Amino acid sequence: MPDNLLSHTNELRPEAAAAAGGVPHPPRASQPLARRLARAGLAAADAICAALTPGWVRDTPGLVVLALHSLCRSRAELHDPALAPNQNVCVEDFRALVEAMLECGYVAVTPEQVAAGLAPGGKYVLFTFDDGYFNNTLALDVLESCRVPAAFFISSNHVLEGRGFWWDVVHRELAAAGLSTSARNAQVRRFKALLPGQIERVLRARHGPAALRPRGDGDRPFAPAELADFARNRWVHLGNHTADHGILTRCTPDEARRQIEQCQAALRSITGTAPVAIAYPNGNHSPAVAAAARAAGLRIGLTVQPARNPLAAADDQRLMRLGRFYFHGRPDVDLEFRGYRGGFVPSRLVHRMLQAA
Ligand SMILES: [Zn+2]
């Protein structure tokens, strides 16, 4: 699911959208400019701090988890109108990321290795992809040539039903109607206050019964047989991303448990193995959600809190709320990469302040 730093201001207040009637609506006209200015200012501050950070502050022992979503073959395909913007990365940028991390001495690990406890003193990286896009098969060439594993977090009912992802539908339909990217992003944030079934009902009512049908290989999920074949690759590790991409803290306890357990069962049925890791959709988690995940057999949980993780032993509760950085690719690939390596990053401080507010 698309996400970015400043979108958290709304994600933290789902009740605000619900109080506004529970129906997504366009943002105030002043928001896009203010958000753009704030983002530009934070990016400049991040760049200055990265340039001033001495080498010894960077690359201390720990685990860096990196999140991607959909992949495309070339830079020319980055702006596929069938996909939400800001979550599409080209293979060339993914390869640059992997090579940069390896050159700095990071060891790429699997979710199973993280769950078992990583050896002290090392620098580790876990590459992850969310949602279950078929286009993630484009990662294989990089994984095989660089000999690194990656974890792919699958929303299982999308795979079983061949259902497209609602955020892509929102962007596609609203772009066709002439709405700006900012207005479409605001719409997506407001939809996140609802449950997946509610969102999809609204989209079908507005855009027709076939609204959730993918437009092609760029925006579709894996088919079950394709996922089974993909999972047989030695560098591929599957993870739980719930049955319907449910934002678990907005579900009832029973529904949250069902979302997690159904996904575990589906992936076990498709691949023969149940995952040890969950990526909480939208990063939303709580002690109750983590407990439900552990009860379903999961041993690590990934958030979207942009932070390096201290090394933790197996069964350490911190493994159920690991921080994770989004990787957006160029033009900020070098700055993004520096941000993963430690030191003070102003945008992260602002993010934490917004979460605490
Ligand atoms: Zn997702």
Can you tell me the number of structural domains? 1
The percent range for strand residues is: 5-15%
* Secondary-structure element order, N to C: HHHEEEHEHEHEHHHHHEHEHEEHH
Overall pLDDT, averaged? 85
In the CATH hierarchy, the architecture is Alpha-Beta Barrel
The total of beta strands comes to: 10
Q: Whole-Å distance between the termini?
A: 24 Å
Structural account:
The protein has 357 residues and is α/β, with parallel strands linked by helices. It has helices at 8-11, 14-19, 30-52, 91-103, 111-116, 140-146, 156-161, 166-176, 181-191, 196-207, 224-231, 253-271, 287-295, 333-340, 346-356; strands at 62-68, 70-72, 88-90, 107-108, 123-131, 150-154, 236-240, 277-279, 300-302, 325-326. Strands 1, 4, 5, 6, 7 and 10 form a six-stranded parallel sheet that branches. The protein has a two-stranded parallel ribbon with strand order 2-3. Helix 8 (166-176) packs antiparallel against helix 9, helix 8 runs parallel beside helix 10 (196-207) and helix 12 (253-271) runs parallel beside helix 13 (287-295). It is globular. The protein binds zinc ion. Zinc ion is lined by residues 1, 130-131, 241, 245, 281.
Features:
single chain, about 350 residues, alpha/beta, TIM Barrel, binds zinc ion
